[in-house]
Hints:
- By secondary structure, the protein is an alpha+beta fold.
- The chain is 29% helix and 27% strand.
- It is built from four helices and seven strands.
- A seven-stranded mixed sheet has the order 1-2-3-4-5-7-6, with helices on both faces.
- The radius of gyration is 14 Å and the shape is globular.
- Mean pLDDT is 91; it is low at 148-154.
Amino acid sequence: MTIDIRMIRDRLPQQIADLESEARQEGYRHITRLIDEWSAGDVRFEGNGERLLGAYVDAVLAGVGGMTVEAAMSRALRMRRFYISPAMRGRGTGRMLALALLDHARSCCCIVTVHAGNDGAAKFWESLGFQANGQCGHTHRFDLHGSSFTPRSR
């Protein structure tokens, strides 16, 4: 199994429709929101420090995750629209994607926030070093420069 993390620019990959379908079956609408916001031009992950990445496993899109400016805090980014195909969970795909985003964030901000949608997601983010912190609309935060845990994608 080969995991390849790629930046998504200009247009969403066609395979995003498969992820959207899987997410909807699980009751999640954040990939639908990603597609809608992207299509409308509202959120394109083009701001200072913003980024959208795709995780490909053997050339198939297995997950996406992005970061946008965290409006509620200065010098912070917010992890958004993070989703891994159920078949790819527990295989390191999500971890590799999240660490690539954190590596990028280290150069342009001090804090990364996330809103964990459920207990499983909360455990995932906490395993990466995020601390529970229910303020400003997020559930967890990661202090990039004050943490003893140093994320590296490789």
